[in-house]
Structure prediction request, 341 residues.
Amino acid sequence: MPSLFPVGVNVFKSLVVAPFAALVLTLSPLVAQAAEPIVIKFAHVVGDDTPKGKGALLFQTLVRQRLAGKVDVEVYPNSTLVGDADEMQALLDNKVQMLAPSLSKFIEYSPKLEVFDLPFLFDDDAAVARFQKREASRDLLRSMAGRGIYGLAYWNNGLKQLSANQPLRSPADAVGLAFRIQPSPVLEAQFAAVDAKAVRLPFSEVSKAMQSGTVQGTEGPWSNIRGQNAGLKQSYVTETNHGVLNYMLVTNSEFWTSIPFAVRSELENIVLEVTQTVNAEAAAINQHEREQILASGNTTLVTLTPEQRQAWRAKMQPVWKSFEAHIGADIMRAALAVNRR
Prediction:
């Protein structure tokens, strides 16, 4: 009887080996593609020498050291890839994978984040840091995940000052002036409370707006005041410490969860390390920029007495009540509880 073994071998080859070879050929482009590093485009609108700018570069450096060949971070500062007005949509479209916008940018997605815009809510940077460790603040970090925005960390940029082309010692001095703000109903109400006008403008347009007279003043931490007014004679800065300008480091939710777990875990560890550095250095950077602005000879510092600062606070504090229902009384109480008065 003729042997069936050779026939069996041939059948095996035709049924298993040939399809497997075809499958390998079919999958080979996907395998090659998977071997390519994951690209994270990190875009922001400020300079490399700001707290945010330094944080982005440190993140890039640490990823290059620890995840070489697996992840490649590309940093685009100063609106070179996408501007203020378009960055959120770019993130949702996965055209960029990482941003660190100010918290004002997120009110459309999570109105409770407006708590950070309320004027004179926090006594100092330390109070802000304490609040960010509270459960209410951590919940806010993840509050937009279902809408495509995954919060990774809070990056602090310091307390805000008022800058203008005239001295601002009392709320009456701001009457009729136009101040540049980020998009925020709270900030609009803040300036309306002192009978001033709020003008929404991208950060990159502030210098031009100051030169043209479209606005007569701005608000922001010292590092931003120096950056946005480079080359300008910004006559007066009033040290009000009236609010905070903090950022949220965010990524595209779908993109982030698609990263292999081990790689994503290492990225989250790096984010934590960078966040600690950014927040520790923010105060030092702002102090340095404050000294640089005053040393330039182009700016006069207006220092408020306790009574003068209280007058500003009294005028702006009614804004809290206006937004209590919108933000949530529980969140506002949690924020106020961190102050040590």
